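User: quick one, fold this
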Amino acid sequence: MNQAAKIALLTTEYTQDGLGQWVETTTPRNVFAYVSSVGMNEFYQAGIQGMKPEYRFLIWATEYKDEELLTYNDAVYSIYRTYLRDDGRLELYVEKRKGEEQ
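Assistant:
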């Protein structure tokens, strides 16, 4: 599987409201990516560390701003590893966000 898809990189900011309480605001930023399954070695190595990798997304490195979360197909994923390739693209390895398993 290696298909083009639209994903949203999520930026989270915290601000204080009028009562002094911290309020979380999440802003999505849409980018196009190539989606593929993680390889067997990646799946095994991440599994040793207690992770459950699901996808590898390939985007242009200049589009990434150190986001920790992304959405794809209405699901939220945590970015647990990135890899900068020689061709200027960045691989994002993700797992389902904790607490959102279905």
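User: anything notable?
Assistant: Helices lie at 40-48.
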